[in-house]
Amino acid sequence: MKQGNTFWLIFSIILSSVILSILLFYSLRMPSYSPAWKGREIAYKYGCFNCHGFEGQGKIKNPTYRYDETPAWQGETAMMFILNEDELREWILYGKPERLKNIDHGGVIKMPAYKGIIPEKELNYLIVYLKAVMGLIEIDNDSAKIGHKIAKNSGCFGCHGPYGMGGMPNKNSFKGYIPGWDGKDFKELVKDESELREWILEGNIKRLKNHPIAKIFIQKQIIKMPAYKEILTEDEIEHIISYIKWLRGEVKSH
Fold first, then answer.
1. Is the CATH number 3.40.630.30 carried by domain 142-247?
2. Higher model confidence: residue 1 or residue 101?
3. CATH 3.40.50 matches 35-134
4. Contact 195, 207 (CB under 8 A)
5. 192: exposed, middle or buried (C-beta count within 10 Å: 0-12, 13-18, 19+)?
6. How far apart are alpha carbons 152 and 142 in whole angstroms?
Protein backbone atom coordinates (compact mmCIF):
# COMPACT_ATOMS: atom_id res chain seq x y z
CA MET A 1 0.00 0.00 0.00
CA LYS A 2 1.31 3.43 -0.92
CA GLN A 3 2.32 5.77 1.91
CA GLY A 4 -0.34 8.34 0.97
CA ASN A 5 -3.10 5.75 1.02
CA THR A 6 -1.91 4.49 4.43
CA PHE A 7 -2.07 8.02 5.84
CA TRP A 8 -5.63 8.56 4.65
CA LEU A 9 -6.71 5.17 5.96
CA ILE A 10 -5.31 5.93 9.42
CA PHE A 11 -6.80 9.44 9.29
CA SER A 12 -10.24 8.04 8.38
CA ILE A 13 -10.10 5.53 11.23
CA ILE A 14 -9.12 8.22 13.75
CA LEU A 15 -11.77 10.63 12.46
CA SER A 16 -14.46 7.93 12.59
CA SER A 17 -13.44 7.06 16.16
CA VAL A 18 -13.64 10.72 17.21
CA ILE A 19 -17.06 11.17 15.60
CA LEU A 20 -18.39 7.99 17.21
CA SER A 21 -17.06 9.09 20.60
CA ILE A 22 -18.76 12.48 20.26
CA LEU A 23 -22.04 10.87 19.19
CA LEU A 24 -21.87 8.44 22.11
CA PHE A 25 -21.18 11.26 24.57
CA TYR A 26 -24.16 13.29 23.37
CA SER A 27 -26.40 10.22 23.30
CA LEU A 28 -25.57 9.65 26.97
CA ARG A 29 -26.56 13.24 27.68
CA MET A 30 -29.97 12.87 26.05
CA PRO A 31 -32.67 13.48 28.68
CA SER A 32 -34.74 10.53 29.87
CA TYR A 33 -37.79 12.30 31.24
CA SER A 34 -40.03 10.38 33.64
CA PRO A 35 -43.82 10.10 33.12
CA ALA A 36 -44.38 12.56 35.99
CA TRP A 37 -42.00 15.08 34.38
CA LYS A 38 -43.78 14.70 31.05
CA GLY A 39 -47.11 15.14 32.82
CA ARG A 40 -45.93 18.43 34.30
CA GLU A 41 -44.98 19.69 30.84
CA ILE A 42 -48.42 18.64 29.55
CA ALA A 43 -50.12 20.48 32.42
CA TYR A 44 -48.24 23.60 31.34
CA LYS A 45 -49.04 22.97 27.66
CA TYR A 46 -52.80 22.81 28.25
CA GLY A 47 -52.97 25.80 30.59
CA CYS A 48 -53.67 23.94 33.84
CA PHE A 49 -51.49 26.30 35.87
CA ASN A 50 -53.43 29.30 34.54
CA CYS A 51 -56.34 28.52 36.84
CA HIS A 52 -54.87 26.19 39.47
CA GLY A 53 -51.76 28.28 40.10
CA PHE A 54 -48.08 27.45 39.66
CA GLU A 55 -47.58 23.71 40.24
CA GLY A 56 -51.27 23.56 41.15
CA GLN A 57 -50.74 25.41 44.44
CA GLY A 58 -53.91 27.47 44.03
CA LYS A 59 -54.34 31.08 45.20
CA ILE A 60 -56.21 32.05 42.00
CA LYS A 61 -59.31 34.09 42.84
CA ASN A 62 -62.61 33.01 41.29
CA PRO A 63 -65.38 35.62 41.75
CA THR A 64 -68.76 34.27 42.92
CA TYR A 65 -67.20 30.85 43.61
CA ARG A 66 -68.32 29.20 46.83
CA TYR A 67 -64.75 28.58 48.00
CA ASP A 68 -63.39 31.95 46.80
CA GLU A 69 -60.39 30.45 44.97
CA THR A 70 -60.00 27.86 42.21
CA PRO A 71 -59.11 24.63 44.06
CA ALA A 72 -55.46 23.79 44.56
CA TRP A 73 -54.30 20.28 43.75
CA GLN A 74 -53.23 19.61 47.32
CA GLY A 75 -55.06 19.60 50.63
CA GLU A 76 -58.63 19.06 51.78
CA THR A 77 -60.29 20.85 48.87
CA ALA A 78 -58.67 18.56 46.32
CA MET A 79 -59.70 15.50 48.33
CA MET A 80 -63.29 16.75 48.44
CA PHE A 81 -63.52 17.08 44.65
CA ILE A 82 -61.46 14.03 43.64
CA LEU A 83 -61.93 10.64 45.29
CA ASN A 84 -59.94 8.43 42.93
CA GLU A 85 -58.15 8.20 39.58
CA ASP A 86 -61.39 7.65 37.66
CA GLU A 87 -62.78 10.97 38.90
CA LEU A 88 -59.52 12.68 38.07
CA ARG A 89 -59.86 11.42 34.50
CA GLU A 90 -63.50 12.61 34.36
CA TRP A 91 -62.53 16.10 35.54
CA ILE A 92 -59.98 16.39 32.73
CA LEU A 93 -62.15 14.94 29.97
CA TYR A 94 -65.59 16.32 30.90
CA GLY A 95 -64.89 19.25 33.20
CA LYS A 96 -66.68 17.52 36.09
CA PRO A 97 -67.08 13.93 37.35
CA GLU A 98 -70.39 12.09 37.19
CA ARG A 99 -70.74 12.31 40.98
CA LEU A 100 -70.84 16.13 40.91
CA LYS A 101 -72.55 16.79 37.57
CA ASN A 102 -75.71 18.23 39.20
CA ILE A 103 -73.87 20.38 41.74
CA ASP A 104 -72.95 23.98 40.92
CA HIS A 105 -70.55 25.83 43.21
CA GLY A 106 -70.70 29.01 41.12
CA GLY A 107 -67.64 30.91 39.99
CA VAL A 108 -66.93 32.71 36.74
CA ILE A 109 -63.93 30.43 36.06
CA LYS A 110 -65.14 27.00 34.93
CA MET A 111 -63.14 23.84 34.44
CA PRO A 112 -62.85 23.18 30.67
CA ALA A 113 -63.45 19.76 29.12
CA TYR A 114 -60.47 18.30 27.22
CA LYS A 115 -62.22 15.36 25.60
CA GLY A 116 -61.22 15.32 21.92
CA ILE A 117 -58.40 17.76 22.64
CA ILE A 118 -55.86 15.86 24.71
CA PRO A 119 -54.52 12.59 23.24
CA GLU A 120 -54.72 9.45 25.39
CA LYS A 121 -50.93 9.21 25.80
CA GLU A 122 -50.68 12.78 27.08
CA LEU A 123 -53.71 12.23 29.31
CA ASN A 124 -51.99 9.26 30.96
CA TYR A 125 -48.81 11.25 31.59
CA LEU A 126 -50.86 14.10 33.03
CA ILE A 127 -52.68 11.75 35.39
CA VAL A 128 -49.37 10.30 36.65
CA TYR A 129 -48.19 13.83 37.46
CA LEU A 130 -51.47 14.90 39.06
CA LYS A 131 -51.69 11.77 41.21
CA ALA A 132 -48.18 12.51 42.50
CA VAL A 133 -48.92 16.17 43.19
CA MET A 134 -52.27 15.37 44.82
CA GLY A 135 -50.90 12.56 46.96
CA LEU A 136 -53.23 9.99 45.39
CA ILE A 137 -50.54 7.31 45.05
CA GLU A 138 -51.10 4.66 47.71
CA ILE A 139 -47.93 3.22 49.24
CA ASP A 140 -48.74 -0.35 50.25
CA ASN A 141 -45.49 -1.17 52.06
CA ASP A 142 -45.07 -0.16 55.71
CA SER A 143 -41.35 0.67 55.62
CA ALA A 144 -41.72 2.46 52.27
CA LYS A 145 -44.59 4.52 53.65
CA ILE A 146 -42.40 5.69 56.53
CA GLY A 147 -39.57 6.37 54.09
CA HIS A 148 -41.84 8.50 51.92
CA LYS A 149 -42.76 10.64 54.92
CA ILE A 150 -39.11 11.02 55.97
CA ALA A 151 -38.07 11.96 52.42
CA LYS A 152 -40.88 14.51 52.21
CA ASN A 153 -39.98 16.06 55.57
CA SER A 154 -36.29 16.14 54.60
CA GLY A 155 -36.94 18.22 51.47
CA CYS A 156 -36.05 15.47 48.98
CA PHE A 157 -39.12 16.02 46.80
CA GLY A 158 -38.32 19.70 46.31
CA CYS A 159 -35.52 18.64 43.95
CA HIS A 160 -36.42 15.07 42.96
CA GLY A 161 -40.07 15.92 42.27
CA PRO A 162 -43.31 14.76 43.95
CA TYR A 163 -42.88 11.23 45.30
CA GLY A 164 -39.35 11.45 43.85
CA MET A 165 -40.85 10.83 40.40
CA GLY A 166 -38.89 13.32 38.33
CA GLY A 167 -36.71 16.22 39.37
CA MET A 168 -36.41 19.90 38.65
CA PRO A 169 -34.08 21.63 36.15
CA ASN A 170 -30.41 21.90 37.16
CA LYS A 171 -28.24 24.18 35.06
CA ASN A 172 -24.86 22.74 33.99
CA SER A 173 -25.68 19.22 35.18
CA PHE A 174 -25.02 16.26 32.88
CA LYS A 175 -28.58 16.04 31.54
CA GLY A 176 -29.89 19.42 32.65
CA TYR A 177 -32.15 18.22 35.45
CA ILE A 178 -32.16 16.49 38.84
CA PRO A 179 -32.98 12.80 38.23
CA GLY A 180 -36.08 11.15 39.63
CA TRP A 181 -35.81 7.95 41.62
CA ASP A 182 -38.05 5.92 39.33
CA GLY A 183 -36.39 6.61 35.96
CA LYS A 184 -33.58 5.22 33.80
CA ASP A 185 -31.08 7.80 35.09
CA PHE A 186 -31.15 6.17 38.52
CA LYS A 187 -29.39 3.03 37.25
CA GLU A 188 -26.62 5.14 35.73
CA LEU A 189 -26.04 7.05 38.95
CA VAL A 190 -26.68 4.31 41.51
CA LYS A 191 -25.16 0.90 40.81
CA ASP A 192 -26.11 -0.73 44.11
CA GLU A 193 -27.45 -0.07 47.60
CA SER A 194 -24.04 0.92 48.95
CA GLU A 195 -23.84 3.74 46.36
CA LEU A 196 -27.38 4.84 47.23
CA ARG A 197 -26.39 5.01 50.88
CA GLU A 198 -23.26 6.97 49.90
CA TRP A 199 -25.34 9.47 47.90
CA ILE A 200 -27.61 10.08 50.90
CA LEU A 201 -24.84 10.31 53.48
CA GLU A 202 -22.18 12.20 51.53
CA GLY A 203 -24.10 13.93 48.72
CA ASN A 204 -21.79 12.26 46.22
CA ILE A 205 -20.19 8.91 45.39
CA LYS A 206 -16.53 8.05 44.84
CA ARG A 207 -17.12 6.37 41.47
CA LEU A 208 -18.37 9.60 39.88
CA LYS A 209 -16.32 11.96 42.02
CA ASN A 210 -13.16 10.36 40.64
CA HIS A 211 -14.40 10.00 37.05
CA PRO A 212 -12.54 12.44 34.72
CA ILE A 213 -15.72 13.62 32.96
CA ALA A 214 -18.44 13.07 35.57
CA LYS A 215 -16.60 15.09 38.21
CA ILE A 216 -16.58 18.14 35.89
CA PHE A 217 -20.37 18.16 35.66
CA ILE A 218 -20.77 17.45 39.38
CA GLN A 219 -18.59 20.43 40.21
CA LYS A 220 -20.24 22.76 37.65
CA GLN A 221 -23.91 21.94 38.26
CA ILE A 222 -25.71 24.73 40.11
CA ILE A 223 -27.77 22.58 42.50
CA LYS A 224 -25.73 20.01 44.37
CA MET A 225 -26.94 17.02 46.36
CA PRO A 226 -26.71 17.81 50.10
CA ALA A 227 -25.15 15.41 52.60
CA TYR A 228 -27.53 14.00 55.22
CA LYS A 229 -25.03 12.14 57.40
CA GLU A 230 -25.58 14.61 60.25
CA ILE A 231 -29.34 14.83 59.65
CA LEU A 232 -30.76 11.34 59.23
CA THR A 233 -30.46 8.34 61.50
CA GLU A 234 -29.52 4.87 60.24
CA ASP A 235 -33.14 3.73 60.61
CA GLU A 236 -34.41 6.74 58.65
CA ILE A 237 -31.97 6.01 55.83
CA GLU A 238 -33.13 2.39 55.74
CA HIS A 239 -36.75 3.52 55.39
CA ILE A 240 -35.87 5.94 52.58
CA ILE A 241 -34.03 3.15 50.76
CA SER A 242 -37.10 0.94 51.23
CA TYR A 243 -39.26 3.66 49.70
CA ILE A 244 -36.98 4.11 46.69
CA LYS A 245 -36.97 0.35 46.12
CA TRP A 246 -40.78 0.31 46.40
CA LEU A 247 -41.07 3.17 43.92
CA ARG A 248 -38.90 1.24 41.47
CA GLY A 249 -40.95 -1.93 41.99
CA GLU A 250 -38.08 -3.76 43.70
CA VAL A 251 -39.85 -4.69 46.95
CA LYS A 252 -43.06 -6.57 47.66
CA SER A 253 -46.18 -4.84 48.90
CA HIS A 254 -47.43 -5.64 52.39
1. no
2. 101
3. no
4. yes
5. exposed
6. 16
